[in-house]
Design brief:
Blueprint lengths: L6 E6 L5 E3 L13 E5 L1 H7 L2 H6 L30 E3 L13 E6 L9 H14 L4 E5 L3 H13 L2 E7 L4 H9 L3 E5 L3 H15 L2 E2 L8 H5 L1 H9 L7 E5 L4 H16 L8 E7 L4 H8 L25 H10 L3 E5 L1 H15 L5 H15 L8 E6 L9
The protein binds pyridoxal-5'-phosphate.
Length: about 400
Amino acid sequence: MSRFSYLTHLECSESGATAPSDRLQTFSEDGFPFLARYDLKALSEEVDRDRWSARRPSGFWNYHELLPVQDPANVVSLGETQTPLIEISTVLEKIPGRFGKLYVKDEGRLPTHSFKARGMAAAVSKARELGVTHCAVPSAGNAGAALSAYAARAGLTSVVVCPNDTHETILNEIRQYGAELITIDGLIQDCGKYIRERAGEHGWFDFSTLKEPYRIEGKKTIAFELAVQLDWKPPSVIFYPTGGGTGLIAIWKAYHELKELGWIDGPLPRMIAVQAAGCAPIVKAWEDGDIKAGPWPDATTRALGLRVPAAFGDRLILRGVRESDGFAIAVSDEELSAAKTELARETGLLCCLEGAATYAAFKVAVERSMISEADTVVCFNSGSGLKDDA
Ligand SMILES: Cc1ncc(COP(=O)(O)O)c(C=O)c1O
């Protein structure tokens, strides 16, 4: 008999020390993110890959065996759909060289109109399973919108702390879901500090990137969908807009799980961390050959989701980039804004600035011959362009 979830335990991403997953956890005693582990052997014996992917309607919770919620009654859902993988190879006609195929994975179609819905759907569901009632998150906007929507759906309270220059459209969205919204004069790490200093007193559970273990689990569904959409053959290259890096780490983790299950063929994708030139700590660490990233001083970019001067998951991001034979690359605000306009006009896709950055980086990578002409490329559009104030 198959189980709803094959989750077994948590493991420190650096030391490998284990921790139980049947109680509330944050990060490891050594101060590093936890990774959730599953009984993949039993799963491969008890669940058939093609039946797994043929479940209808398609969508997020169909992948429940590789998600952390044990009891289906705890699933909090807002109707997460499989997001489309849209081929935009026509734009390649203007780019010298011939590529296999170029796609955009468009996450603007998810609840709350960004990929942050995936992480929060899993994290809020699991938190509810483990008894959390008060949720808190520091956010550049989209994670806060997703947390407050899923918390509302689950009947939990939420507090969101954002920098005071966050897009007004998203601040309004957060207010409408009924969250307590606090804006401060500072960056995302200052918002995180604000929550840490008050969490004990108010009984808040902190959903900060990688400081709770399950947002990345939800984001693994990006790779599960890609696997199904590309007939179990990983794309050659994935360009991912990297702030805290949850999605990049999650996609890499998910491909490993699929490989271990024996469900995919061929080499795993090269993972490309795309950052803004005004805040590129991962790019600097990658170029310097470091295993961790130093904090980036005076971070500035219009792509607010990429304005993360110090990522808690820096080692995991860099490990994913290196292990996959990928690279890290920065684009200027001018390049990413121009990419947004070009994508809208040439393909009809209104990507957010962070998502458009991946297309800008793709073009730079082609120019510098960093990817091969035979590659099948996925640019990850993390949210709807309607959420950018300008
Ligand atoms: C639209 C958008 N894209 C990308 C990112 C960066 O995501 P991650 O923290 O997974 O690197 C964010 C984070 O706020 C975002 O809102």
